Amino acid sequence: MPRFWALLSILSLVFVSNCTIRFNDWDISQEVKTFSVQQFETTAGNAPPTLGQQFSEQIKERVMNDTRLSFSPNKGDIQFSGAVSSYEVSPIAPQPGATVSLQRLTIKLNIAFRDNTDKAKNWEQSFSRFSDFSAEVDISSVESQLVEEIYAQIIEDVFNKAFGNW
Fold first, then answer.
1. CB-based contact 40:83 (threshold 8 Å)
2. Which of 27, 9, 19 is nearest to 166 (CA)?
3. What is the pLDDT of residues 92-113, one digit of tens each?
């Protein structure tokens, strides 16, 4: 009998570790029907010029996929705007001999959220995330993957700030 409980415990752990729980208790008023995303600017001098546009498209896609809101190219009931304000590659994980084994790409966005149906929900905030990569790799060969990872994290943060009911 103890073997049965041990096996059941192991199977339960395997099942639970492969499950994803998602909370979709978004705090969106019934008055809000549309959203818009202004083209995000890229103000960080050393950033690729397309980073702002890329973020604009990704936040637009996330809101369309995960809420009931319709996209409005002009003034939506809810509006997102902002800029990529910082793009930094910095060395981390120093090794003997004045070398490093890892580098870090950090991206910061300044984002404004406007709810035209409830001005009390308006906010402006900076969001920053990073991703590490091997110092032996040129940034240009991994940049698109790193930006995807960083943007996924920032979009999750922005989405939770805008619509989270926690």
1. yes
2. 27
3. 867 666 577 888 999 999 999 9
pLDDT of residue 3: 63
How many whole angstroms separate alpha carbon 75 and alpha carbon 23? Answer: 28
Cα separation, 81 vs 101, in Å, equals 36
Q: Give the distance between the most distant pair of CA atoms in the chain.
A: 67
Structure tokens at 49: 């010029």
CA distances from 78 to 10, 64, 116, 148, 162 (A): 47, 12, 6, 24, 9
In angstroms, the CA 155 to CA 65 distance is: 13
Give me 159's structure tokens.
Answer: 């989405």
Give the pTM: 0.79
